[in-house]
Specification:
Elements: H1 3-6, E1 7-10, H2 14-23, E2 25-30, H3 36-47, E3 51-59, E4 63-66, E5 69-72, E6 76-83
Antiparallel strand pairs: 1-2, 2-6, 3-6, 4-5
Length: 96
C-alpha cells in the first residue's frame, strides 16, 4: 500500500482536540487494511515528525434510514498516534 493511501483524513472532534492539546496524541481515519507499522511510516513521512506509539480501533458503520429504506455506512478504522517527546505538534489549519 502506498504511503499516500494510508491516511484518509484527520479526525477533528472534541475528544481528539483534547488529546492533542494534553498528551500530543493525534487521531486519523486510516485505510482499513493498514497496520500499525504502515500508519507509523505514513505519519512520519507526511508530517516529518517522530512517532512514539500507534493505537488502532476498528469502527463499525452506522445504520441509516431514509423512510422505509435501510442502508449502512461502511466500516472504518481510526488510529491514535502519539508523537515522541519534544516533537512539534501537527497543525491541520495552519494557513486558515
Amino acid at each position: 500500500m502506498r504511503i499516500q493511501e494510508v491516511i484518509r483524513r484527520p479526525l477533528i472532534t472534541e475528544k481528539s482536540t483534547r488529546l492533542k492539546d494534553d498528551k500530543g496524541i493525534v487521531a486519523f481515519e486510516v485505510a482499513r487494511s493498514a497496520n500499525k507499522i504502515e500508519i507509523k511510516r505514513a505519519v512520519e513521512a507526511q508530517f516529518k515528525v517522530k512517532v512514539a506509539e500507534v493505537r488502532v480501533a476498528s469502527m463499525h458503520g452506522k445504520v441509516r434510514r431514509q423512510g422505509r429504506f435501510v442502508g449502512r455506512q461502511p466500516d472504518w478504522k481510526k488510529a491514535y498516534v502519539r508523537l515522541a517527546a519534544g516533537e512539534k505538534p501537527i497543525e491541520f489549519f495552519e494557513g486558515v
